[in-house]
Amino acid sequence: MNAKPELLRVALHLAATGIPVLPLRAGKLPFGNCPACARSACGDRPNMKTPGPCVCPAPCHGWAAATTDPTILRSPHWARAWREAAAVAYHPGGAGLTVVDLDNADAIAWAREALPSTRTVATTRGEHWIYRGTMPSANGVRPGVDIKSLMAYARWLGPGIGTMAELPDVVRALIVKEPGTVQAVARTITVPAPAGGGECRHRTPSFLERGITMAEQRITAAGGGGGVHATVYGTFLAVLSTHGWCGCLTEAHIARLFAAAQAKGESPRHCTDAWANARTVLGM
């Protein structure tokens, strides 16, 4: 029982740094909903889209119960959970983070070859690689690899070692499902450009032109096989995140990117799907 107050101390320390936390019971599982909240009778808050308690003050709803409020963490309604807790968990997305959960030695070996180095935390069977930035969570993105960010929780196993890097496109690309194989056809594809509405950072036309040219070069230099797919998606994501919010990106620019991708053997369908997936990830 002596470890239980220590878990609360850890939780309070993390909460003070802006990391939403929650207790876990044995088996690395969150505490189940109380009777008043069973089967979402309480309506959740709101439908588990954001972290935080529902109207029930108990730590219900798994990851969505994560909080940075010390009053809630110390409350009598959470006292039983802390007495029975086996570990502390946190909501990576709520802290602006993404955890690449590597579950075995093969997954770690893959990450060391494919991913940029970042802060790492040792786990029971593998490692957590932590990046700055958020994305949708997904399990089984490749053998032994899960993504934990938005609407997910990860066990707190210490601060880790190394310098935390920005979330790279190669990690974002892991959640994109490849479309079925279709024959590539070199033809013009028209997709709508983002409507814009944000602040324009393109103070000169050369800024946007340079960005599109660099994106074309990146696609052209992509390796074969699945590397082309990942590069095309990652490039589309990078272009949209930098140039897609203010309305300066036109259909002519998009056509240039699609043409570069098709020249590498990408199908029109994959180009269209990759562009749509990138917009979805960015909330456009």
Protein topology:
Blueprint: H1 3-16, E1 21-25, E2 29-30, H2 70-73, H3 76-84, E3 87-90, E4 97-102, H4 105-114, E5 119-122, E6 127-132, E7 138-142, E8 145-148, E9 154-155, E10 165-166, H5 169-172, H6 205-220, H7 226-243, H8 251-263, H9 268-282
Parallel strand pairs: 6-10
Antiparallel strand pairs: 1-2, 1-3, 3-9, 4-6, 4-8, 5-6, 7-8
Helix pairs in contact: 6-7, 6-8, 7-9
Mean pLDDT: 80
Number of strands: 10
How much helix, percentage-wise, in residues?
25-40%
Question: Helix and strand succession?
Answer: HEEHHEEHEEEEEEHHHHH
Which term fits the overall shape?
Answer: elongated
- The fraction of residues assigned to DSSP E strands is 5-15%
Structural class: alpha+beta
Helix tally equals 9
What's the N-to-C terminus distance?
Answer: 49 Å
Gyration radius over CA: 22 Å
Largest sheet data: 6 strands, mixed
Low-confidence region ranges? 45-52, 178-190
Summarize the structure.
36% of the residues lie in helices and 14% in strands.
In words, what does this structure look like?
Helix 6 (about 205-220) packs antiparallel against helix 7. Strand 5 and strand 6 form a beta hairpin. Strands 4, 5, 6, 7, 8 and 10 form a six-stranded mixed β-sheet that branches. Strands 2-1-3-9 form a four-stranded antiparallel β-sheet. Helix content is about 35%, strand content about 15%. The chain has about 280 residues and is of the alpha+beta class.
